[in-house]
# Entry
Amino acid sequence: MSTSIYTVSKVVQVLNADAVFVDSEAIIQYLVIDSRSILVPENSLFFALKSHRDGHEFLKDAYQKEIRNFVISDRKYVDQYPGCNFIIVADVLQALQTLAAYHRSQFDLRTIGITGSNGKTIVKEWLYQLLAVDFNIVRSPKSYNSQIGAALSVWQITPENNLGIFEAGISAVNEMEALEEIIHPEIGILTNIGEAHAEGFSSKKEKLLEKLKLFKHADLLIYSPEYITEINAKQLPGKRHFSWSSKQAADLQIIAVEPIEGNCYLRALYQHTEIECILPFKDRASIENGMICWATLLAMGYTPEQADLRLEKISPVSMRLELKNGINQCSIIDDSYSADISSLAIALDFLNQQNQHDQKTVILSELFETGKTDQDLYKEIAELLIQKKVNRMIGIGKHIAAYKSFFNIDSQFFDDTNAFIEAFPSISFSHETILVKGSRRFEFGRISKLLTQKIHDTVLEIDLNAMVGNLQFYRSKIQPGVKIMAMVKAFSYGSGSFEIANLLQFHKVDYLAVAYADEGIALRKAGITLPIMVMSPEESAFEAIIKHRLEPEIYSLEIMNSFIRFLSDYDFNYPVHLKIDSGMHRLGFDRVEISSLKEALKNNDKIKVQSIFSHLVASDAAEHDGFTQYQIDQFKQISDQLVNTLGYKPLLHIANTSGISRWPNAQMDMVRLGIGLYGFDSALFQNRGLQTVMILKTTVTQVKVLEAGETVGYSRRGIMPKGGKIATVKIGYADGYSRAFGNGVGKMIINGHLVPTIGSICMDMTMLDVTGIDVKSGDEAIVFNHDHTIIQLAKDINTIPYEILTNISQRVKRVYFYE
# Structure
């Protein structure tokens, strides 16, 4: 967002572009890259970016939502949309970046640029907390740090701002120059250099040198010598340097790190004097991020005493929205860590992805330090809520309540959080999606707890951004025009139902596939409108299939004839999908049945074949490539015969997840993406390019110290000949943690240590050997994550990731995160 105003003719001048004008004085205030995220269409400029999808495909959507200003690279669209201003450029992304860089150049404000492998967003948010008292700060929303995100972040700069804090993230060489021109930081911060996003670089040195390009015009660079070992310090950009380290000499040399009652006490040498500070965290990542912030304050001229006072008060930062089950069949979106206009718009977009309830409610606190007058601020928020089709708003805070007349929707107002909590029993919440969004000082976590169902201490966390990243990874591998059918059977491989389907629908997959009709019915009831294929239709479900517009897989003459007979009372061509058995020998028409199938299809007006498909047996395995090619050839021959019989061409598809990766010639009209969405593809070495979607975690219930010779668990199978310490955690085989993990086969992570199971796995609990480790009741135990992977768990008990995922019990609560 931006309060700066340009005319479309001024934008053309900045971009030095060709243009077709209807109104050259049209006002441009908002830059739009997504036709689903439009605030004020009459003042928006839509950029038809080409990435995983061609933005020109969405001009129609943007036009229907009343946008009339477009930046395109294909002139043929000019005549298709009358009454519009078109700016024609060679490269739409470059145009977006050029406009952002120009906008940045119009302001004389100090700018902090942050890059590194990890910690960028947390450092940015903590610096905002630490410096907000002295500066009017503009910063990247959430983790907007990409080639696109950085441009949109800088566009937010207004004349009132005197400090900008922006992230820069890259994934390949030759990307940082554009970000440097956009951000142009005066102060540079290199957080660290690790393995994250390493795929696009030939070496750690290449990755480091590329990231350092952000600081080529910086006055000050803040870094740790531990992360620049691949280069000489003389190669560092920046006129001045300030170093920090906990392992070697530096401008800020940390000499002691001591935990104190949940906090961390740091001592350091600075300018030949010993100084100290307290961080309100104790985990390793937060301590390092705190050190970076400490170094930044000192490098900016704050005294050690000032830095200590401020660092002790920094608050945890959750950059992710949490989607949870709520009371009275509600869905709760918890975004209570902060509130500003940009993050509110992002949260409202996520709210609009949720189709499971018609009613959408926002509980919103007043906002601070926005650089706007209250009148302008709450008028803009009121318009935003209407634009996003919010049905009800509950405002908390005297400032927002003073402008209640702006909110022309069902609304209530309370002076503070306590007043809302007192009134809570009398407020009705039922069958609605509720966004809880508040500034930290309003303590909206208390409201979220009231609205959220009690969560079992064992939780499966699903990272929706990672899932979108995996979807885009596979989109980059398929040819233009090839459709995607996403497999959401078996409760979306254990990850959820409508929560996953809503995400996939929002990101425009073409089809969904479920195993049974009841799965599809649940999605329809949750507002999913995508076509849904049912892979195992039963005669008893035919009526429900038709009622809910589901599309059955037809795999035999018997099921086909039964369905056609059931359709006798209907006078339309009902969509179905024909399954061909090309070698799996599970379901499908065999080659010998094709003649009978062709005969049955002739002159049949009760069904319409939407697709013909088959299933690859071993598309991931090189040793079976000959058989995979045989399957593809067989399918092509059979599908050609069926198309000739039908007289029209349905969609053809045979490629599954590994087929997409290894068999580009098998993409045909559509591909079926399954386990790859969740971060697993056995055709990819170590799942390279995919992101971890799910983390399963539980908590320690009790810790016991045992004497030598004592045993643990049922049948005394766990033996501790030398004694030791055990921790009992709240997960067992009823939660899906297999008994095969017992007696040291399974391991979990507690406080950074990989610890083995001991004894048999119980129904609701598991015991872990934590001898020699500092563990207490309430500590977190990670069953699997990106380090201790599902692949490893599957190997430990000689199974596959599918089984690990789908065995996770429904009593394990799912929490969905979206950044």
